[in-house]
Amino acid sequence: MSRSHSVTTGTHRPARRAYTGTVALAALACVTAVAGCAPAAETWTVPPAGAAPDYQLGAAYDADPRVGVIARDRTAPAATGAYSICYINGFQTQPGELASWPEHVLLRTPDGKIRFDPDWPDEALLDTSTASARTAIVDTVSGWIEGCARDGFDAVEFDNLDSYTRSDGALSLADNLAVATALVRVAHDAGLAAGQKNASEDAAALREQASFDFAVTEECSVFDECGTYTAVYGAHVIDIEYTDDLPRPFAEMCADDAAPASMVLRDRLLGAPGDPGYAFELCD
Questions:
Q1: Closest to 158 measured CA to CA, from 172, 135, 137, 131
Q2: Can you give the pTM of this predicted structure?
Q3: Residue 194: exposed, middle, or buried by beta-carbon count in 10 A (0-12, 13-18, 19+)?
Q4: Which of 155, 156, 258, 266 makes an SS bond possible with 227, Cβ 3.0 to 4.6 Å?
Q5: Residue 143 to residues 15, 69, 90, 137, 194: CA-CA distances in angstroms?
Q6: Looking only at Cα atoms, what is the longest distance across the chain?
Q7: Is the pLDDT of residue 161 over 70?
Q8: Does 75 have pLDDT greater than 80?
Q9: Residue 268: strand, helix, or coil
Q10: Rounded distance, CA 195 to CA 185, Å?
Q11: Cβ atoms of 239 and 220 closer than 8 Å
Q12: Which domains does the chain carry?
């Protein structure tokens, strides 16, 4: 299965802002209360179907004029002149940010050690298994979501929704769904569309139960997962393929019947033009 991709630019990101407003707590209460909550009025706009995308998590730069959708890290400025998606690592820590999380939010192994992602050893898994930890996660991430809205982004994408699959059974899909549902509600209340990042096997549940609006996928063609996403989100799927893992020419992948209408080929490090290895290619 494909893995979530998070990139650090090599600079230490600023300490996260504490968020004590009522939006986060109300959102989490909605997914834990016996009584349901009324859905938020739809004040957000989904990414334009079929628009050419660029994925700029490694560095922000002026995009190709053909590009209509641009994703950037939450610490970067929103793109202008295109639909702008804000990347948030909502279920694992970002590199360099471990110390800024409360101890009780970091998932532990049976012997008390912090549990790190085996593929990304500088990312610790967040503990979604308890109510207190879920509240702390939603409280923190809600501040980032509100920041994305203030900075002019149109949407957020939440990464590592499938962290439970790397927890050796300590977490469950239900745990992560509870957090995801709350985060989507915060995004919608802030006027932002909410994107599912990867986790193809959970696409239906994330769409139906957490109310995600679109999907951002990595290498869905390489892993033969594109149809799984488009079956759930239709034309609102944005796919990023990488130059170091192409089984065949990118143009052939674009021509597949299951290929999303929004696809881009990027270098794995997501560098800027002029960087070693920089790559950017769109489907014709």
A1: 137
A2: 0.88
A3: buried
A4: 258
A5: 12, 24, 12, 10, 15
A6: 55
A7: yes
A8: yes
A9: coil
A10: 12
A11: yes
A12: 23-282 (3.20.20.70)
